[in-house]
């Protein structure tokens, strides 16, 4: 899964890496969302994901296929998040330093469901930067939770974030298998 707050770049990240034409379930932002959806960081945003985004990418020389499900960023879609999280192996949470609090709903859902995740700070032009320790504290991340940076518009950068997640999931799974054998 790819999760995070409203306007953080989930649709953009999936579009930048998908080998298939991404499925996008977007609708125009309407007056009804005024006062509900915060457009301060994204004043030119005209659409929003209302169900999910979907893409696919093969990695590790074709031996690994990632099916990417982008969750809508608004907390009012939490029932949909829970349905899409069913059976998920892990999640890349995108965060924006202009509004780190917008990540907390997704992080809470993942923690509650026991789904491992990595966090990628999407580097928007002109957004503030903070030391890693401050970011970890603001996001309440465990020390082992991977934290990386990406530009969701850039394929290589987005791939790096997904590689960070898949390496973590591989390590997480190996550790769980070792623990279960004790």
Poorly predicted tracts of residues: none
User: How many structural domains in the coordinates?
Assistant: 1
| CATH homologous superfamily heading | P-loop containing nucleotide triphosphate hydrolases
Give helix % range. 25-40%
Q: Please state the average pLDDT score.
A: 83
* Run of helices and strands: EHEEEHEHEHEH
Shape: globular
Query: End-to-end distance, in Å?
Result: 31 Å
- Strand content of the residues, in percent? 15-25%
Structural class: alpha/beta
Number of helices: 5
Write down the CATH topology.
Rossmann fold
Placed side by side, the strands forming the largest sheet appear as 1-5-6-7
Q: If you compute it from the alpha carbons, what radius of gyration comes out, rounded to the nearest whole angstrom?
A: 16 Å
Characterize the biggest β-sheet: 4 strands, parallel
Q: Count the strands?
A: 7
CATH first level: Alpha Beta
Q: What is the architecture at the second tier of CATH?
A: 3-Layer(aba) Sandwich
Topology:
Elements (H helix, E strand, L loop, with lengths): L1 E3 L5 H8 L5 E6 L18 E13 L4 E7 L7 H8 L5 E5 L8 H10 L3 E6 L9 H8 L7 E4 L4 H26 L2
Helix pairs in contact: 1-5
What features would you describe in this structure?
The chain is an alpha/beta fold and 182 residues long. The chain has a single domain, classed as Rossmann fold (3-Layer(aba) Sandwich), CATH 3.40.50.300. The protein has helices at 10-17, 78-85, 104-113, 132-139, 155-180; strands spanning 2-4, 23-28, 47-59, 64-70, 91-95, 117-122, 147-150. A four-stranded parallel β-sheet has the order 1-5-6-7. Strands 2-3-4 form a three-stranded antiparallel β-sheet, covered by helices on one side. Helix 3 links the parallel strand 5 and strand 6 (117-122). Helix 1 packs across helix 5 (155-180). The chain is globular, with a radius of gyration of 16 Å. The mean pLDDT is 83.
């Amino acid at each position: 899964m790819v999760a995070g707050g409203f306007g953080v770049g989930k649709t953009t990240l999936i579009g930048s890496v998908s080998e298939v034409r991404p499925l996008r379930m977007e609708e125009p932002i309407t007056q009804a969302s005024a006062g509900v959806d915060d457009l301060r960081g994204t004043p030119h945003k005209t659409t929003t994901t209302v169900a999910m985004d979907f893409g696919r990418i093969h990695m590790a020389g074709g031996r690994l296929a990632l099916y990417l499900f982008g969750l809508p960023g608004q907390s009012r879609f939490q029932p949909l998040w829970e349905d899409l999280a069913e059976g998920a192996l892990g999640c890349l949470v995108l965060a924006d330093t202009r509004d780190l609090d917008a990540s907390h709903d997704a992080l809470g859902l993942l923690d509650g469901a026991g789904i491992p995740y990595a966090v990628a700070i999407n580097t928007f032009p002109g957004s503030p930067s903070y030391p890693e320790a401050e970011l970890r504290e603001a996001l309440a991340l465990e020390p082992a939770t991977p934290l990386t940076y990406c530009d969701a518009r850039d394929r290589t950068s987005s791939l790096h974030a997904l590689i960070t997640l898949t390496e973590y999931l591989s390590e997480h799974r190996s550790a769980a298998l070792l623990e279960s054998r004790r």
